[in-house]
Amino acid sequence: MPKHPTRSLSFGLLIIALALRFFRLSSQSLWLDEGGTWSEATGRSWPSLFGDLFSPRQSYPLYHLLMKAWTSLFGDSELALRAPSALVGALAVVLLYHLARRLSTPTVAWVAAGLLAINPFGLWQSQDAKVYSMLMAAVLWSNLALLDLLDQPKPKQVWLWFVSVVLCLSLHRLALLQVLGQVLVLVLHFRQSVWHKWLWLGFGLLTLGFMVGIRFGLRQDPNAPPIGRTIGVFQAAWLLLGRLSFDRSSSDLTWRLLPVGLALASGLWLTWSHPRRNIILSLWLLPTLLFLAVLAVGSPLYEPRYLSFSLPLFCLMLAFGLAGMTQQRWLNVGSIVAITGLSAWLVFQQPYGIWSGNAVKEDYRGAVQTLAEHVAPDDVVIVQPPYIATLYQYYASRVTPDALPIARGFGRIGAIGYDQGEFDNDYAALLAGQRRGWLLIAPENAKAIDPPNPQYPQDDMGKVGINFLTADLNDKWRCTDLPYWEFNALRILCQSFPRPMQVENLALVGTWSIPNSATATWDHTLQLEGYQFQAWADGYQAGGTLPVQLAWRTNSVLAKDYRLFIHLVPALGAPVAAQVDTMPLNGGLPTSRWQANQAIHDQVAVPLPKNLAKGQYLVVLGWYDPTITDIEAQRLPMTASTAQHGANYIELGTVEIE
């Protein structure tokens, strides 16, 4: 065999892999599972995380322990949380090169490493604050340690391999699939050894332990995120091919999987005649077959990332096949370009590629940012399912300096016997006496604990979601211009209560109190009966909002949909420093739908730019007709006011920006 590759070549491969994995590393929002990593690493104590190492119900305890140490040193930003995955993901590329070099030619090794470096599924795992990229690298190191043990069966090699196995199992319990493959390699290699029967016994016991663990170890808590899906074997194999190849659904790829399928088939054929076929097939094929066998007995375990540790050897099989299809020393350049070029294109593809610029992961950052721009201090914010509160909490302190309302949830939803009556009681407990409620919901996650009612075709969010969606059909106001605002697998809904809601029977009775303040009338019809600034705990700060509560009435039906504006100015006549321009209830209740003499209350949040200078600002409010193009002519005239005002605005007072 040719000489071992130089350190400089390995270093160059590492630099390329690092560049690919750190590119746009923090561009995507954290998604649900990454929020779980943050919560575990920053919210739990060292002793409790150490205790998890010995708990059979903890899937990847060592990872959370390592992440706690990492975040203690480097913080918990999106970049910091994902950096370990990016680092070890790049290391996995180098380790695959060395593993492939031990099993085949330098050319096959370079191609295998190159395929892994640009593989979309590998890039996703390397830009995800989860264990799978780290597990990939650990399994590769364990495989290298296994080869050392086979070549030199000495105590040192035995202990190094054993340590690597413990590392893999501590990172993720499903690494046992790979360990079973490694034990089978030892069984087949040491046929003449006195330890042969003990190795067979160990293989059998590990297999039994794995099956028992799968049978009894799956999470049963209905309020926890689902482990995976129940799926058929052949469908799983087909979908896994698409994910491992290009991180896409196989049905979306169709003919694009042809070069991968040919290379994989060729690789399997050539491996059968390979002198170390027992090693290659045991390390790659056995874990895959065991995973499919688990699915065959109906376990809800289908999730492609659970088999992500097999991706490097999948790339190695492709490299074998690409080499064999040409029957030459050098690989078919066209085949390599086809696969790597398609991989590079898919990571940039709109709208699904991780580097496309679109929100590919659940967009909690965008959703919480939008909430922060609209909520008031006395609003109720509900999250569904309750466990997504972790992501709300993470971003609430990052997108605004304001102390946003604490997220609330329906804690018992999904429990056995939880019916509509109990939901109504919980709903009243959360919202009775409140003026407005916001809902942040992840519909696909919510379905697991609050399935939609098939009797209502429009219901795809369950009891909680349909309650907010139909607010304007149930004596409430919808306080968004659309049925919901959408943020890639997330939705924001809002409902406002025209009158206080009773706890006992959910009836809306009485009236809301009107702030004791100045009044005003525009165009003899639009009446401001009261207003007040709502203060955040730490005052008004640049980058936050100025919430204003408004009480309105009209003495006649309005034919047009007028818009209101609120401006912050250092002084009259000075340029506007901050403003909001909106229809009432964020467009949910246009003025053309107001009834004569109906009490209308609204809460408007004025975004305060991050570069807004400290100091006092005058707040003015007015109305305009957007159908008129001339700016001066479109503003409604002021016809009465008990406060300082201009021809078309009222001065609400001054606020201090801290």
From TrEMBL:
Compartments, record wording: Cell membrane
InterPro entries per the UniProt record, alphabetical: LipidA_mod_glycosyltrf_83, RgtA/B/C-like
Keywords: Cell membrane, Glycosyltransferase, Membrane, Transferase, Transmembrane, Transmembrane helix
Keyword 4Fe-4S carried by entry: no
Glycosyltransferase RgtA/B/C/D-like domain boundaries: 61-208
One Pfam family hit: PMT_2
Keyword Phosphoprotein part of the UniProt annotation: no
Its membrane topology: Multi-pass membrane protein
Transmembrane intervals: 79-100, 107-125, 158-178, 198-218, 253-272, 279-299, 305-323, 330-348
Domain of life, source organism: Bacteria
Protein name: Glycosyltransferase RgtA/B/C/D-like domain-containing protein
